[in-house]
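Below is our example:
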Amino acid sequence: MSKKTHKTSVGGQALIEGIMMRGPKGMATAVRKPDGEILTEYHDIINFGEKHKILKAPLLRGITAFIESMIMGYKALMYSAEVSGMEEIENSEMSGFEKWLDDKFGDKLMNFIMGIASFLGIALAILIFFFLPNLIFKGINTLSHNALDAFQGTFEGVIKIIIFVCYMALVSQMKDIKRVFKYHGAEHKTICCYESGMELTVENVKSCTRFHPRCGTSFMFVMLILSIFVITLLSLVVPEELKHNVVLWTIIKLPMIPIIMGLGYEFIKYAGRHDNILVTILSAPGLWMQRITTKEPEEDIIEVGISAFKAVITDNPEDDEIK
């Protein structure tokens, strides 16, 4: 391997007892099986941009990448649950009625349940990150006799960040999530080791930082920060009577999500290639949040990260660099 340091486009995701790594050519997963063996496999990837070139255009490619990562991430997560033995444990704990439903309907029932769960998840996210900040603002603004009207977008954005940080802090205390966060840390440390030009060994990976600017946590935080600017500008042109209606104001804000998502993706891509004051300032909150969403991994977890990374990296390091 070349000792030249370079920024790679390889990114990953923590799984159940495993890690998924995605490179420019494909995707690989490494999962620790119940017997201790690491099962590493290469998978086909979904690439809407290759089929429809328009989806590679700036802003649109961010939305496309997000959808692709959601689909592949879900599939990889379900795959890791099966390989790691988690699925067998859950099956053994099912009640008689649940087993009957599983035998009767199988995958159709699971797909239906996951569809309902996804719908409820989206509805809950809209409730928490759109309705709730608006309701809190309305309450405080009413007490101040509408003196905060001009700051509605900024106020709601700050509330979203507070909710996000509190939610992640609470979730990070769950035992199973802590272990997933260790795999998240191993993913970052492995990529950092490679980008530093060091050989991919457990000791080298262990010495690297677990904080990385090209991370889903950083992406979420960048989106939250960008939403403050976008929604603040929007609030300046939307009539006050519409902003005072919680439902209408939420509907008006929803179309801004793809725009914010596209801008966030472009910044994360830019941050992966550059190191300047703008990147430092906007990346700082996301990197700080990674103190919550990543944990220091043990050696056996690092081994999984190395296995997944080696499976997805190409023979020519230049092919893996951020374009």
Remarks:
- The chain has 14 helices and four strands.
- The mean pLDDT is 83.
- The CA atoms of residues 171 and 177 lie 7 Å apart.
- The longest helix spans residues 107-143.
